[in-house]
Each structure stands twice: as structure tokens, then as C-alpha cells.
Amino acid sequence: MNRLFLFVALVGLAGCVPDGLTDFDFQGLQPDPPADELTGEVVVGTARDAGLTVELTAMRGGPHLGYVRLGLAVTRGGTAVTDATVSLSATADGGPAAGVALPLEDPARDADGVYRGAAFLLAPDTTARQFTLTATIASGGTTTEVAFPIEARNDLWMQAAGADVLVSWVDPLRPVVGENRYVVAAHRWTGTAFEPVDGATVRLYPYMDMGGGDGHSTPHGAPEALGDGRYGWDVDFIMSGGWEMTVTLAPPGEADRTAAFVGYTVYEPEVEA
Fold it and tell me: Which of 221, 166, 240 lies closest to 3, judged by CA?
């Protein structure tokens, strides 16, 4: 379908937006961040024990609340250790969730020998943003544990949906004009644990504010339940610039609640030379 036709049609539907969307002129107020803010890795810390050196990195400019992609480079005497089994654990250091285990993805080794995983740095109280990440590394018949203190930024990648559900942006890492696979993960804070919210009814509404009261959405597919609290959609962004993504979620037997990811940037696709 012609993108110009879609744009005109969607502008005409701009009045059909969820309650609570702001009048921000995202394009005027949200300048594009540098590309490496989303895709570049930042060294979080380095730990040494039992002859191993472990360097921890995080994507999107460093640790932030929500879903964080992590990398662990493990070396011994300057040589990469590529035969290790690596697992992670993480807890909050303060706030109502202090000491509670956080949801994780254990690392797998990539082609460069880096062990890549992820952690959900979740905080019911967003002022409590200190965490401890522990990596357990089994290699050469020995097992070593190293711990990293982490302070997470509070930015748009985790949003509250009601009083007890936290919604994290998982994918895409760098939204671009054209087709994207958009994935969020929902976790309920029970007071003692973070539990995935499965079986929910979910809806998605991407919106670009064009200023002056005008705006538009963009084509997107039906939601797909992916398990473990994750939900995915295909989203076809028709323009680059600042957008808002509203996720409406109703856990089984409960009313709708919304989480809004405000002011993220959709980029033009990178062109290979």
C-alpha cells in the first residue's frame, strides 16, 4: 500500500486516540538522540576473581529501568574464555522490592565470544534504582561468582500500568521507518515477587503529534501473546521522528490499564554503503 495514502488516511483518523494523550509537539520538543544512545554498549563495570576478568556492558547507553540487554566478556590472562557456562541473578538493593529476585535471560555466547543475556531491572518505586547483578561462571572445573553494583536510569523504557503492573519495552532496540517487531513484557508486583502477566487482553496505539492539534497513527497488526508476560505486534512506521506508544492491557478478569512510552525516536533505516 502506498505510504503517502496511508499517511493521509491516518491523519484523518487523528481524533480517534486514547484518552490522556498529550498535546506535545514531539518533533519540536524531542530532538533525535545520537544513534549510539540506543545501540551502543557502555561498560558498566569490571570484576576479577580466581584468575578471571569479567567486563559487564549494557546497551542503550547503560543500565536503565526495564529490560536491559547485557554482555559479559570473560577473559583469563588476556585470552577470551569461550567454554564457560554463565548464569545471572539480580536483586534490587532498596525500596519495596529490596532483595527480591528479578526476571532474567541467562547469557549465551555470541560469535565474538561475548556472553549476551538480559535483565529486567524493575522497581515499583522508581526512586529506588540501585541493583546488584551477580554472574556465576563455570569454566575449567571451577565456578566463580562476581557481583556488579548497578544504578539504573529512570527513562521511558519501563512504564507503570496501574498501581501494580510494570510494562517494559523489549523490542525493537532501534525503531526505524518501515516494518518493526514491537514487543513489551508485563510484570505484576505482588509485594513479594515480580510475576509475568499472561492471558491479558492487549491493544497498541502508536501516535505522532504533528503540532497544532494534528497527529496520526501508523499501521500495526493484531497482538500476539508470546508467553512469559510478553506480547508482540508488527508495526509499520510511516515517518521518522518522535512518537508515543500507548499499550492498553487488561489482565484476566480486570479492567483496562495503560502504559505510555512517550517521546521515543523512529529513525530512517540505515543505508549500507
Answer: 240
